[in-house]
User: Fold this.
Amino acid sequence: MSDSIWIRLSQMGDAGALMELDSLVWDEHSTPAQIEWKSREHYLQKCPPGSQLIAGIGEEICGYLGFDSPTPLESNRHVYDINIAIHPSYQRRGVGRKLMEAVKQHAAGQGIRKLSLRVLASNSEAFAFYQSCGFMEQGRLVEEFYLDGQYVDDILMWCPVEAH
Assistant:
């Protein structure tokens, strides 16, 4: 199956499909606040073309992986902060792993040395997936969010990028 997965940088025309994907993926189990886009223009301001890797099978967009510098500081330019979303119908089919491999290659080509991400402690499947992709816990914000009647830790993870 993974042989039929394609990966490319995001384009202007992807906005609608990616906004729809966000509405399907991000919920109280995966994020502390529901993502709501006010408009296509709002989405494109926050996620401009080329700031995400898009995965697809055939004509379908199956997922994305967004990447950006965590701060505007020059001293922080060697880091990409990433986020990943896979359409529920395509989860556990190699799409996320292919996106992770692709972002590591893309990052290495851009001189990036570190990938970082955040995951809710209650999202154990995502945490395990990130570990299987080479991410390690680098910190934990204890009881950072109150979600669905319980306090949830926010786990900070990182992965070194191998120079190519």
